[in-house]
Amino acid sequence: METISYSMARLAALVPYPPRDANKYTRGRLVCAVGCDRYPGAAVLGSRGAEVMGAGYTQVITDASVADHVRAANPSVVVSVWPDVDPAQLPPAREGHPCAYVVGSGYDAGDSMTKIRTRLVLENAQAPVLLDAGSLDAATSQKLRDILERRAHDGFANVFTPHGGEAARMARPLGIETDDAPELARQLARAYCGTVMLKGPVTYVCDGETVVRMDEGTAALAKAGTGDVLAGMTGALLAQGLSPLDACVLGATLHAFAGQEAAKRLTDICVRAEDVIASIPQALMRLAQAG
Ligand SMILES: NC(=O)C1=CN([C@@H]2O[C@H](COP(=O)(O)OP(=O)(O)OC[C@H]3O[C@@H](n4cnc5c(N)ncnc54)[C@H](O)[C@@H]3O)[C@@H](O)[C@H]2O)[C@@H](O)CC1
Ligand SMILES: Nc1ncnc2c1ncn2[C@@H]1O[C@H](COP(=O)(O)OP(=O)(O)O)[C@@H](O)[C@H]1O
After folding, report:
1. Where residue 72 sits, what CATH number does that domain have?
2. Is 224 annotated as a binding residue?
3. What are the pocket residues of ligand 1 if the criterion is a CB atom closer than 6 Å to any ligand atom?
């Protein structure tokens, strides 16, 4: 399977530095439908990763029990609680006011609310939607695959960020059997009508045609919560108007650089997901120098 890689110059040119007249809405709004009683930390990590990655306005929709954790950890994030959210009022992406959604980080695949909330976001968000964690399992149902197909037809991007286990669970019900990671990314992207970022020691991103290989990762990233951070970072880049392929490749590369920069200070042993977020500025500076 033929793959390409983005040059450092190409990646550096994609970084959405804000223009002089930017305001928080023109910079892009990211709505994160994330976190549940069992996994409140995913909501904190994803929303913080999104803010540091440049989203102008980061919103979290979550369970009441999670909301206070997010408010306490990230006071700049705007938090709503599920029963108070009117799906018809979910903000759309508009000319000059870009917007994107992340759904599923910190969702439990076995929880009946996961499918309901994933469907609610996909049906109502007139904007790119990134599906992560529990929402990837939900996406295997025929009903949700129909919605994904309709969204793609209507011009709304679907983005999927599975690790190897989640990719296998997405592949199985569709009879996709390949063990070749870039080919798996390509087949999943086609079957689910979107762009797939297949995460691992090497990460592959495919929009159904082009397969991009990203091998800047470090084993320091192999720790709980780093995927939640990556979903927030990539969602923030989608919210700032990058195409799905570009947002995934830039997000994965900056996440990998941030892991490397954190490991320089802390060693491969000690890096936590929080440290990856704290190292995003160094990752940006490194990319600016390399590009
Ligand atoms: N602090 C938090 O709140 C955290 C919440 N998290 C959330 O926890 C939920 C469950 O996520 P998990 O990834 O643990 O659940 P999964 O149910 O996807 O992982 C469990 C199984 O999948 C397989 N698997 C996991 N990672 C794999 C990999 N990289 N390659 C191949 N196979 C793999 C393994 O067989 C594993 O036993 C998600 O909603 C996630 O967002 C995690 O991100 C950890 C941190
Ligand atoms: N050995 C490794 N080398 C490089 N990157 C890794 C390695 N292991 C995991 N990663 C990266 O760490 C992140 C883990 O994501 P994920 O498994 O979804 O974590 P979580 O669900 O706990 O947040 C992914 O970006 C993945 O590419």
Report:
1. 3.40.1190.20
2. no
3. 39, 41-42, 105-107, 109, 133-134, 163-166, 224-225, 227-228
Length of the chain in terms of residues written: 291
With the most atoms of ligand 1 within 8 angstroms of its CB, the residue from 228, 229, 233 to mutate is 228
Percent of the chain with pLDDT over 90: 98
Q: How many domains does the chain have?
A: 1
How far is the first Cα of the chain from the last one, in angstroms, to the nearest whole number?
27
User: Is residue 178 a part of any domain in this protein?
Assistant: yes
Average pLDDT over residues 82-100: 94
CA atoms within 13 A on the CB side of 22: 15
Residue-wise pLDDT for 14-47, tens only, equals: 999 999 999 999 999 999 999 999 999 999 999 9
Helix (H, G, I), strand (E, B) or coil at 191: helix
Q: Is residue 261 part of a domain?
A: no
Residue 87 labeled ligand binder: no
Structural domain containing residue 106:
8-13+23-252
Question: Is residue 266 a part of any domain in this protein?
Answer: no
Cα 281 to ligand 2 centroid, rounded to whole Å: 20
